[in-house]
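Input chain follows. Return C-alpha cells only.
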Amino acid sequence: MQFADLLGAEALTFDDVLLVPGYAETLPSEVDLCSRLHEKLSLSIPVLSAAMDTVTEARLAIALARQGGMGVIHRNLDPADQAAE
C-alpha cells in the first residue's frame, strides 16, 4: 500500500503545479488557503515549521498558530523546559 492510498483524498505539492505570473481576476480575499492535515485538523494557512531546535521554539510556534499555521516544537527540550516556554 502506498502512502497516498492512506490519505484517501487527492493532494497537491509544489511539484504538481506551475505558477505563472500574470493578470488574474481573482482577488486575494477570494482565495482559500486552508489545508487539511487530518480529518479533524486543518490549517488556515499552509505553513508548518520544521521540528528543528534552530528553527522552531515556543515563540515561532505561537506566532504561526495565531496566523493559522502550525509550529512543530523540536524534541531537544525536556518536558519541564517545554512547559516553561
